[in-house]
Structure formats: C-alpha cells, structure tokens
Amino acid sequence: RYVLGIDTSCDDTGVGIVELISSELAPDGVRVRANCIWTQTVHAQYGGVMPELASREHVERIDGVMADALAEAGLQVSDIGAVAATSGPGLVGALLVGLMYGKGLAQALDVPFYAAHHLEGHIFAAASEDNLEAPYLALVVSGGHTHLFDVPEVGTYILVGATRDDAAGEAFDKIARLAGLGYPGGPAIAEAALRGDATAVPFKEPLQGQKAFEFSFSGLKTAALLAHKAGAKPDDLAASFQRAAVHVLVKTTRRAAEAYGRQTVVVSGGVAANTALREAFNQTNLRVVFPGKGLNTDNGAMIALAGAAALRAGRSPSPLEAGATAYAPLANG
Ligand code: ATP
Ligand code: FE
C-alpha cells in the first residue's frame, strides 16, 4: 500500500512516500504521506552544482532523509510495498546514489522496484491533485527543461515542442543573478516582481521559429542584460521578465492545446510554482492542473507517484541492472 520514491538527480536528496488508497490515481486514490528533502548548500560557493560534491553529499544524507520520511509518514521500513528511484536524466554520479539505494532497499524488502524517468516524475507530481486521465498536454518547466508533450494515453509521450536554447527556470536563475537578486532565481524573481513595474522594461516576444511550438529564452536573457546595463531597476527587470516569460509559456501552450485538441494541461517542474504563471494559466479556458505544494521542484514524492502509476498500470518492475543515464528523452511516441 505504500510506495517509496527517491530522487537524487541533481543537488537535492529527496525521499517521499505515497499511500495507495483505492484503485484510482489521485486525488482520492493516492495520498502523499511524506516528502522530505535535503537541499545541498556546498555548491553555493562555486556558483553552480559541482557533480562530484553532489554525489558525495547524497551518499552522506540519504539515510537521514529516508529516516525522516518514514518518521513523517509514521511508518516502519517493512511497511513499504514498492520502491521507485530516478534513473535519468540528471548527473550520473548523483543519480547512481539514489538508484543503487532504491534497488538495495527493494531487494532487501523483496518488493518491486521501478526505475523512474525524472520528467515523468515531474508530470506525475500533479497526481496529488488530479487523477490525470489521458489524454492531456504536459508542459514541464524546470531548471533544465521547457518541454511540451502530448499524452494521448497513459505512458505515451509525444514531443510537441521544446526550448531551442535555455530552459525557462535557467532564464529565471540567470536573470536573477544578473540583477543581484540571489539564488534560486525563480522565487527571487517572483518576489522582486511584486514590487516592480512589469511595463518598465520592454521585452520583445521571441520570434516564432521554424517549428511551431518551439520556445526560446535566450533573447529575453540578452534583452535583460542590455536593460540591466542601461540601469533598469532590479524589481522592474524582474517584473517585466516574468511577465514576458509567462506570456510566451501560456500562449504557446494554448496554441498547442488547440492544435492537438486537448482540454486538459498539466503544468509541472520548478517554474510551475510561480504564482503569476499559475494565475495566467487559470485565466485560460483550459483545464489546468498543477502539482500540490512542495511538489514542483525536485522531490521524492513525485517519483513515488510515478512509481504508483507504474504499479497501477501493471507495468512490470525494472530489472536490477537498470542503469543511470544523463541523457534520456521522455518522448516515445
Ligand atoms: P530538470 O528537472 O529539468 O532536470 P531541475 O530538476 O534542476 O531541472 P526543478 O527542481 O524542477 O529543476 O526546478 C528548479 C527551477 O525552478 C529553478 O530554475 C528555479 O529557479 C525554478 N523555480 C523555482 N521556484 C520558482 C518560482 N516560484 N518561479 C519561477 N521559477 C521557479
Ligand atoms: Fe527536476
């Protein structure tokens, strides 16, 4: 009845536990019982994630995060009925820690093990709020991805469009650093934007590329740099950039939903935590589903939810030799 999920794809050690209540997926069929995260701080001094340090930190912290998750859920390790862990994409050394830990745990408990795709985890994070019945469109907006998928049926992902340069979250992070607003940039920009004037800095809408539903954020980044050099106030820059980014994300997704004939859109990944983005999506005539609180940025519960979905779909468990992969496209249709 309990599925444990582990994510160690980057610099967060996440362990989550979900309870299967009925045969449905969420919101009534599954409940998040624990979602514990250790966010690594060692990287701050380098201004970026150091892969080798990330792996070592995961090794040191994973036992503790696991104990916290069991305590939060009020469970013993023997209560766990299935284990899922991210196998990619991500930093290979970091992924291996969680993947090996998960396999070992499943082996010791003699329960099924599922290797999970990180992006599928981000999408299934929304299963905390909705039963995610296909078909739907899924927009993953995170630190490394701005990908739009069509999901005609459970487990099928057709790539509709992606960014041809920076990911949306990456643009938030870079512009926040440029404007001296701190790290992580997403929340810092969102906060500064509340005080700024969104019309102060003009951002041109990125030109429509050859491919219909492609995104681009490097132009906004360059425009932000120029505005910053010209003396734009950080708060105004934040508000104006956020408005431009939200606009292009919502507009492109709406067009894709229309083209693919989808009424439901799942918006997930770290940037889905953004209030302005949520408000803009909620004003469309689409049925928009977001992950619940604490499930937007990397976490273990979203991997447990993906594992629960695999279990429910009757997917056969992953072989224990399943390895970690840095590059792993989700698209399979
Ligand atoms: P990926 O999943 O693509 O491998 P990741 O795991 O590093 O990348 P996530 O943890 O999903 O990414 O998301 C982190 C990103 O989300 C960061 O770029 C961060 O700035 C952004 N983010 C977090 N909160 C907000 C917010 N409130 N508004 C905008 N962006 C946000
Ligand atoms: Fe992520």
From TrEMBL:
Instruction: Tell me the residue numbers annotated for binding substrate.
Output: V140, V141, S142, G143, G144, D173, G186, N274
**Superkingdom of the source?**
Bacteria
Enumerate the residues binding Fe cation: H118, H122, D298
Keywords of the record, alphabetical order, are: Acyltransferase, Cytoplasm, Iron, Metal-binding, Transferase, tRNA processing
Provide the GO MF annotations for this entry.
tRNA N(6)-L-threonylcarbamoyladenine synthase activity
From the UniProt record, list the reaction(s) this protein catalyses.
L-threonylcarbamoyladenylate + adenosine(37) in tRNA = N(6)-L-threonylcarbamoyladenosine(37) in tRNA + AMP + H(+)
Give the chief site where it resides.
Answer: cytoplasm
Q: Where in the cell is it found?
A: Cytoplasm
Which cofactors does it use?
Fe(2+)
Q: Does the keyword Cytoplasm apply?
A: yes
Q: Does the keyword Hydrolase apply?
A: no
What EC number(s) would the UniProt record show?
2.3.1.234
Q: Which SUPFAM superfamilies match?
A: Actin-like ATPase domain
Start and end residues of each Gcp-like domain: 32-304
- Explain how, and how many, cofactor molecules are bound: Binds 1 Fe(2+) ion per subunit.
Assigned protein family: Belongs to the KAE1 / TsaD family.
- Relate the protein's function as given in its record: Required for the formation of a threonylcarbamoyl group on adenosine at position 37 (t(6)A37) in tRNAs that read codons beginning with adenine. Is involved in the transfer of the threonylcarbamoyl moiety of threonylcarbamoyl-AMP (TC-AMP) to the N6 group of A37, together with TsaE and TsaB. TsaD likely plays a direct catalytic role in this reaction.
- PANTHER family per UniProt: TRNA N6-ADENOSINE THREONYLCARBAMOYLTRANSFERASE, TRNA N6-ADENOSINE THREONYLCARBAMOYLTRANSFERASE, MITOCHONDRIAL
Q: What is this protein called?
A: tRNA N6-adenosine threonylcarbamoyltransferase
What organism is this sequence from?
Answer: Deinococcus arenicola
